[in-house]
Amino acid sequence: MRVRRHGESGPTVVLVHGGPGAPGTLAPVGRALADRHRVLEPFQRRSGGAPLTVASHVADLRELVARECPGEPPHLVGHSWGAMLALAFAAACPDRVASLALVGCGTFDPRSRAALEAELERRTTPSLRARLARLEREVADPDERLAALGRAVLPLYAHDLSGEEPELERCDARGHRESWDDMLRLQADGTYPAAFSAVTAPARMLHGDRDPHPGRAIWAGLRAHVPHLELEVLERCGHDPWLERAAREPFLAALQAWLERAADGARGGS
């Protein structure tokens, strides 16, 4: 995997981006953490050859952590799909994770997913629906189409965007489909979220109160398997807190506070 780096000293943080197949979006978070942390921002493997799976993404993270963090497990900050992948990694490699911060975590059960879809439907205007249909017809390249669709629906996931453009490298539409289909398969066969009972690292959800993903329902479902999982609800905040006008600074402060608390705990502090 390509790895972008922010900061040179302090506890190591690995950023796990969302999508799937939407690398680069966590760069603003990496820059914000760089003064106190050594931040690694890996770009998840692109499609090609064998279909991408959750297991292949977990294996890539395992290799990255073994290479970059041989002496001390890193703190993982995952966003959306990346939060789901961070949980999968922490379940497979519990001794290689110092802590988990799950930002805008995705859904693990049909009821929560139905609630998400219903809220998105409620927020979608006729004009946006027409625009999405045009993009489907007019943008031939699937990677460019996925990026264009993502930009178009961004307001559905937000509360009050600052106007800052998302930092997105080239999307991977095939990788998105393969990875998400495998996650749904693993949920359908009961692997997730049951496997998360192996997660031992301190874990905290940071979830916007205006995120269409039903944060409290997702948290309640996960706590059945990760009873130590904490929840912090961010006010006036959508799915991408660092892009929100009011919530950006409170989110970054909350994330810094969590990472410092987790690092103190790893050192045996109070």
Description:
The model has no long low-confidence stretch (mean pLDDT 96). Helix content is 43%, strand content 14%. By secondary structure, it is an alpha/beta fold. The chain contains nine helices and seven strands; from the N terminus they run ββαβαβαβααααβαβα. 42% of the residues are buried. The chain has a seven-stranded mixed sheet with strand order 1-3-2-4-5-6-7, sandwiched between helices.
Q: Can you summarize this structure?
A:
With 270 residues, this protein is of the alpha/beta class. It contains nine helices and seven strands, in the order ββαβαβαβααααβαβα. The model has no long low-confidence stretch (mean pLDDT 96).
CATH class: Alpha Beta
**Unreliable spans:** none
CA radius of gyration: 18 Å
Give the second-level CATH assignment, the architecture: 3-Layer(aba) Sandwich
Name the overall outline: globular
Distance between the termini: 36 Å
Give the CATH H-level superfamily. Alpha/Beta hydrolase fold, catalytic domain
Quaternary = single chain
Biggest sheet architecture: 7 strands, mixed
Give the SSE string: EEHEHEHEHHHHEHEH
